[in-house]
Amino acid sequence: MPTADDKAEHRKRIRQRMLDRGEAAFLDHELLEYVLTLAVPRRDMKPLAKELIRSFGSFAGAIAATPDDLRTVDGVGDAVVATLKLVEGASLRLLKEGVADRPLLGSWQAVQDYLHAAMAHKSREEFRVLALDPKNVLMRDVVVSTGTVNQTAVHIREIVQLVLNLGATSIVLVHNHPSGDAKPSRDDIALTARIGDVCRVLGIGLHDHVIIARGGSASFKSLGLL
Q1: Is 146 exposed, middle or buried (0-12, 13-18, 19+ CB in 10 A)?
Q2: Given its phi and psi angles, is residue 177 left (phi above 0), alpha (psi -120 to 50 degrees) or beta?
Q3: Residue 20: which H helix or E strand, with range?
Q4: Do β-strands 126-132 and 170-176 pair in parallel, antiparallel, or remain unpaired?
Q5: Sign of CA dihedral 41, 42, 47, 52
Q6: What does the pLDDT look like over 11-69, one tens digit per residue?
Q7: Distance separating alpha carbons of residues 189 and 218, to the nearest angstrom
Q8: What's the confidence (pLDDT) of residue 54?
Q9: Band of residue 147 on the pLDDT scale cut at 50, 70, 90
């Protein structure tokens, strides 16, 4: 059984590897183990790291898991949850800065990277509205609905009210498919058509509806559905 000195030496080696070679030198469970040692410094976190990877599929999946889902894993307490959510929040903030204060449509890859990080590994569907000003600069990124593993209720009235309250002139719709398949469903297509009809009446631009999944993304505009 590893002694306290053995564990300390192991953590020292992990830290030095990060300093010398960066995150690319780590497998998913090794990187997660290093993160977890920040939450619980005096415990061997390798077994918990491997269990989290097994439960959520990847490092990104563990980081993106909800606090309630994380707590279903034996050994996960508030310190672990807070640390994982800190890593997620810091990552999203860095990516979001890549789309702030610039025309959204001119930095579309940065937008896609941010949305994929924010939504691809969610275990439940989430529907967002990106509200844009007259120069297509992002004003707000708002989660308007969170649902189950395969559906979410979206109320068009709430979307319209949001846009009018913000004084936005156009929007991009975004939602995720936890199944991993970004292909639009019939319901997705019908909902987008209804929202588009309302937007045209009110003079609100609907630039796109993007579906995010672990395996990639789908753009209604690129597919000719908008």
Answers
A1: middle
A2: beta
A3: helix 4-21
A4: antiparallel
A5: negative
A6: 778 778 878 787 787 888 889 998 998 888 878 889 999 999 999 988 988 998 999 99
A7: 12
A8: 94
A9: confident
Closest CA to 219 of 190, 185, 182, 194: 182
Residue pair 191/155 in contact by the 8 Å Cβ criterion = no
Written as one string, the DSSP assignment of 173-225 is EEEE-TTS--PPPHHHHHHHHHHHHHHHHHT-EEEEEEEEETTEEEETTTTT-
The pLDDT value given to residue 6: 63
Q: Tell me the pTM.
A: 0.76
d(CA 9, CA 178): 40
Measured over the CA atoms of residue 198, residue 111, residue 213 and residue 166, the dihedral's sign is negative
Of 108, 75, 109, 110, nearest in space to 92 by CA: 110
Distance CA 148, CA 125 (A): 6
The pairing of strands 216-219 and 205-213 is antiparallel
Contact 53, 59 (CB under 8 A): yes
The secondary structure of residue 67, as a DSSP letter, is H
Q: 212 near 177, Cβ under 8 Å?
A: yes
* Beta-bridge mates of residue 143: 128
Reading the block at residue 110, the tokens are 């940065």
